[in-house]
Write a structure and sequence with these properties.
CATH superfamily of the largest domain: Bira Bifunctional Protein, Domain 2
Distance between the termini: 54 Å
Number of domains: 2
Bound molecules: zinc ion
Structural class: alpha+beta
CATH topology of the largest domain: BirA Bifunctional Protein, domain 2
Shape: globular
CATH class of the largest domain: Alpha Beta
Order of helices and strands: HEEHEEHHEHEHEEEHEHEEHEEHH
Length: 324
């Protein structure tokens, strides 16, 4: 063993590469364990899984606990399909900030001749999706999106609160089991005055944190740094952090040496949706909005990572908090 093979100070980029490799290994190990222990089922595409009974048992308990924790909001319950009309998607401006995560629905509108051409391409083993046409539908990337177009042009001065849970889709294939392409968020949305929107976000951060900690998870609340796209996106991301618009509840799923993963968030949109959707409060001012979002699959998988894949062996206080 020579000194040159083992320098006392490793170059910084080697340390970063080692750490990235260790993180990838930790992600692969958790994924392998969830699949081997029958929690998730590999559907053959990164970030898409089937779920088994044990997953559903914990997932359902997490969702119910989240709902109980926001009971005092007396929020109006709304449910939406996993797709939204293109026109509604347009008004959210999502495509400007996250084009790489967006996904659209296509359908076949051709005639017999086009169908024959499609089948011939398929027979040759070629891709045939180019024979489909955009269907003016987008996969919903954030479950609260549809609500802003539905509240009309005025909300009462005290605001309105909504309980929304549904499917989200974001095109970011990954082998990290904490990063799914198709997932669910349970959101508690408030549309009201600047003060009521801010109070909705800030006032509920302590109780969200306490709830997640009661699940036996180590939680930190940190300013979020969303992956806005491109050069303009870097500016948007900086604004988001500087103005402390969004906070994330993060937990060290892969141990203290690696960056923790966000499992929930508390997001102040200010007048973004109020302006885009033309919503005002009773006094005529542009409405502000805020969202509390529980990442249901992420919380569930963080629980399996922290306590093992058999919920019957979890600490009593964790099972009590989840009413498991
Ligand atoms: Zn939202």
């Amino acid at each position: 063993m020579t000194i040159t093979e083992h320098p006392t100070t490793a170059p910084a980029d080697t340390a970063v590469a080692d750490s990235a490799a260790a993180l990838d290994a930790a992600r692969a190990a958790l994924r392998a364990r969830l699949l081997a222990d029958g929690v998730l089922i590999d559907l053959g595409s990164p970030g898409l899984y089937g779920r088994t009974g044990v997953f559903e048992r914990v997932y359902t308990a997490v969702d119910a606990a989240a709902v109980r924790s926001q009971h005092d909001l007396d929020a109006e319950v709304l449910r939406f399909p996993p797709v939204e009309p293109l026109a509604a998607f347009e008004r959210t401006d999502y495509i400007a900030s996250f084009p790489d995560l967006a996904a659209s629905i296509s359908g076949f509108t051709g005639d017999d001749r086009t169908h024959r051409a499609l089948l011939a391409a398929r027979e040759r083993g070629e891709r045939w999706e180019s024979f489909l046409q955009p269907a003016d539908l987008m996969l919903t990337p954030a479950v609260c999106h549809p609500v802003y177009g539905l509240v009309g042009d005025t909300v009462p001065q005290e605001g309105r609160s909504f309980d929304i849970v549904g499917d989200s889709f974001r095109r970011e294939p990954s082998l990290d089991p904490m990063r799914l392409q198709a997932f669910h968020m349970h959101e508690f949305v408030h549309i009201g005055t600047p003060a009521s929107a801010e109070a909705h976000r800030d006032g509920r951060i302590p109780m969200m944190r306490a709830l997640l900690e009661s699940f036996g998870l180590a939680i930190d609340v940190v300013p979020a740094n969303d992956p806005f796209f491109g050069r303009v996106g870097q500016m948007l991301a900086r604004n988001q952090v500087e103005q402390s618009l969004k906070f994330e509840f993060v937990t060290p799923v892969y141990g203290p040496d690696h960056e923790p993963t966000a499992i929930s968030s508390a997001n102040l949109h200010e007048d973004h949706f109020g302006t885009s959707f033309g919503i005002r409060t009773a006094d005529g001012a542009v409405a502000h909005s805020a969202c509390l979002a529980f990442g249901l699959e992420r919380i569930t998988i963080a629980l399996f990572a922290a306590h093992g894949t058999d919920p019957d062996t979890w600490p009593t206080e964790v099972r009590t908090a989840l009413a498991l």
